[in-house]
Amino acid sequence: MAECRAHCDLWRFLLGALVIVTTAGCASAPARTAPSVAAATTTATTWVERSAEYAATVLQAYRHATTQIESVATNHRSGTWAVVLDADETIITNLTYQLERERAGLGYSAESWSAWVKRREAVPMPGAVAFLTRIRALGGRIAIVTNRLVSECADTEAVFRTHQLVFDVMLCRPDGTPSDKNHRFAQVAAGTWPGATGPLEVIAFVGDNIQDFPSLTQAIRGQGEAGYAAFGVRFFIVPNPMYGSWQP
Fold it and tell me: Could you tell me the domains of the chain?
């Protein structure tokens, strides 16, 4: 009995020690959690998707543009002036496409982009519907100058119609041509686009890329603050940290 009791006491001691070691090991090990969805995306797309600041800055840009245009439009007859806008990340957002590609560990490709455009799932940017509606009410013409290809234009126009994004003309980039928009900007001003009724005074440009504004490139950075004099007056930019001409 004494021998049995000794053996029992030994086993109780060993079992207690095992419990203590196991518990200590669990306490010191880092907690395991399911991978965050955000971990699969860049900081830029996460900021666009989740931050209050992103929506605030877009709305701020559109509200400021509206105030400026309302002031200028009082001196212009209805139908004689226009606002030129980019489409992607200016009027419509492709955040879903960006997130899908990043979470799959993939980047942009012409094939995936074409498939995305055909899905017609882009949605309006904050404030875009109200802004376009106001421009139309003031008597302005609305010209969308986008680098979406002509072969993608019908699908893009369908997205605009679905979301009540009013416009007068959409000038897409001819397939196989460079992304320079200046020729199409000139078409709007000269009134040489299909359906135009005459020249228009373009009183404002809105975009997310420095190349959405006449003759501007990333080289503007070398001009100091003076190079940005038109911004907030005639040029209005909305934030896009996800992609642009600033990339290598």
Answer: 42-237 (3.40.50.1000)
